Amino acid sequence: MCVEGDGCEIEGCSSSDEVRTLSGSMSSALKSSPDLHPCKPGHKFRAALLRCRSPTAAAGILSFGNVLNYMDRYTVAGVLLDIQRHYEVSDSGIGLLQTVFICSFMVAAPIFGYLGDRFNRKVILSCGIFFWSIVTLSSSFIGKEYYWLFVLSRGLVGIGESSYSSISPTIIGDLFTNNSRTMMLSVFYLAIPLGSGLGYILGSSAKVAAGDWHWALRVSPVLGITAGTLILIFVPEPKRGVADQMGRIRTRTSWLCDMKALAKNRSYVFSSLASSAVSFATGAFGMWIPLYLARAQVVQKTGEDCTKEICSSKDSLIFGAITCVTGLLGVVIGAATTRLCRQKTERADPLVCAVSMLGSAIFICLIFVVAKKSIVGAYVCIFIGETLLFLNWAITADILMFVVIPTRRATAVAFQSFTSHLLGDAGSPYLIGLISDALQQSYATSALWRFLSLGYALMLCPFIIVLGGMFFLATALFFLDDREKAEKQLSQMTRPPSTVKVNYTEL
Q1: Rounded-to-integer distance, Cα 161 and Cα 246, Å
Q2: More exposed terminus of the chain, fewer Cβ within 10 Å: N or C?
Q3: d(Cα 341, Cα 171) in Å, to the nearest integer?
Q4: What mean pLDDT do residues 140-162 have?
Q5: Biggest alpha carbon distance in the chain?
Q6: Do residues 200 and 78 touch, judged by C-beta distance below 8 A?
Q7: 24 - beta bridge partners?
Q8: How far apart are CA 112 and CA 124, in angstroms?
Q9: In terms of C-beta density within 10 A (0-12 exposed, 13-18 middle, 19 or more buried), how is residue 313 classed?
């Protein structure tokens, strides 16, 4: 017989079952009492709803929300050429869209990190999704004379999406542990390349289907509101640290203490700097590679400059599909490689990230060598380079979970996000556009020089990626010490869960 949390009997349960509620579980050893009564229909529905709140289902819903998070972010990149023609702005002006988005994202991240360590996380997540969905939908109705307002709307979207990226990984971290956590975080971070690729595909497809690029911004908001509702209903709010320690955290450190501890955590600092290098490259590539390949085809005489109302979406579609596939391969290969290498060395996580970064830099360099002669060759280099680059998404998050205690993980994720965006993709799209504009000054009317100038600007990316690989190697030096410190501190902050003794002779 099972007992639901408000004292009613649930039909269909065996005597060996244990009913688990959001506040805990009730032992199967409890006997039926006269005070119990059959469940009413509303109680049965509630009990069924609680059973649906499994950790796996929660991780799936959070991963779906992360797909939408990145899909919305890169939908704009899928129709970038159309936006540039519609608002009549330069390369640096169009690069400002991503820069403003990321700047607002990173400024809001520490705020949401603080809130996520102290208040109900799923409510914050849902409110953030509802906010950016409404703002994205509203931005699709902004007129061509109000480009500044369109840029501002992207900044507001960044604030909403910041709440999701800062908090959602910590819920998964509190639902799973060890290899199962690595696997679930791999699925969650698979959403980054998958959502990015789908953003290109969605933007291009919606534009072609509707004959108007504005419709690219009107699909993801509907899905976003759906995801926010699912999170409110089906995602539980686990106690912080429950998966790491069979006990209750009896002390909570202050925000200032958390920041000092993170600043002294060498593995956290170096992995955050490495993440900045990844963000720099992915931010620049996500914004500029489709446009770079379109210019390459003009140089090769296999394409023409866009003079129509609706520009060709072929490059955005192909790049989006490649990003989806490489994201899947990268995350799966990264998780499998890390699990295998852990059998050989306990420093496997940062070492796998370092090797993949250095390998990625080689193939990304080759893109700019072969693009002038062969678009197919450029796509092959993009495929291999992105696969290696995406290897480290989930592993980096797992490194953080190992070296940071549960009560400051949301703050750690938020400030890692802040750092990676501040030093990475907050400025890289605008910087690449600025360098490209500067190089075009003398040959503004030359199609060849427009292509080469953008390529020269993008050559900055592989050098930044090599620097990121060096930071991951530095992380490997301190990883074991920092992990041991986190484990000791967690054991000092916890106490065994309280137990209730039952005298069965009195029952």
Answers
A1: 33
A2: C
A3: 26
A4: 86
A5: 94
A6: yes
A7: 21
A8: 8
A9: buried
Q: Give the pLDDT confidence of 427-461 residue by residue, as tens digits.
A: 888 888 888 888 877 665 677 777 888 888 899 99
Closest to 393 (Cα-Cα) out of 483, 332, 318: 332
Residue 82: partners with Cβ closer than 8 Å, 6 or more residues away:
207, 213, 310, 311
476 HSE (CA, 13 A, CB side): 18
- pLDDT tens sequence across 178-213: 667 767 777 787 777 778 778 878 877 888 787 778
Contact 172, 184 (CB under 8 A): yes
State how far the Cα of 368 lies from the Cα of 381, in Å rounded to an integer: 9
Secondary structure percentages of the chain, helix, strand, coil, to 5: 75, 5, 20
- How open is the CA angle 121-124-128, to the nearest 5 degrees? 140
Quick one: average pLDDT of 275-291? Answer: 86
Distance CA 414, CA 167 (A): 8
Cα 104 to chain centroid distance, Å, stands at: 16
CA separation for the pair 378, 374 (Å, rounded): 6
In contact, 323 and 191? CB cutoff 8 Å: no
**Long-range contact set of residues 22-27: C-beta below 8 Å, sequence gap at least 24:** 22/50, 22/53, 22/236, 22/237, 26/2
Which residues contact residue 18 at a Cβ distance below 8 angstroms, ignoring those fewer than 6 apart?
A: 2, 25, 26, 27, 28
Q: In whole angstroms, what is the distance from residue 414 CA to residue 419 CA?
A: 9
How far apart (Å, rounded) are the C-alpha atoms in residues 499 and 99? 53
Residue 442 exposed, middle or buried by CB count within 10 Å (0-12, 13-18, 19+): exposed
Q: Which two tokens mark 204?
A: 């291009």
Alpha carbon separation from 140 to 86, 133, 158, 218, 219 (Å, rounded): 12, 11, 16, 7, 11
Q: Which of 399, 362, 421, 398 is nearest to 270 (CA)?
A: 399
Report the C-alpha gap between 458 and 162 in whole angstroms: 26
**How many helical (H) and strand (E) elements, i.e. helices and strands, does the chain have?**
18, 7
Half-sphere exposure of 256 (CA within 13 A, CB side): 0
User: Which H, E and C letters describe 369-399, residue by residue?
Assistant: HHCCCCHHHHHHHHHHHHHHHHHHHHHHHHH
Which single residue is written with the structure tokens 């998050």? Answer: 397
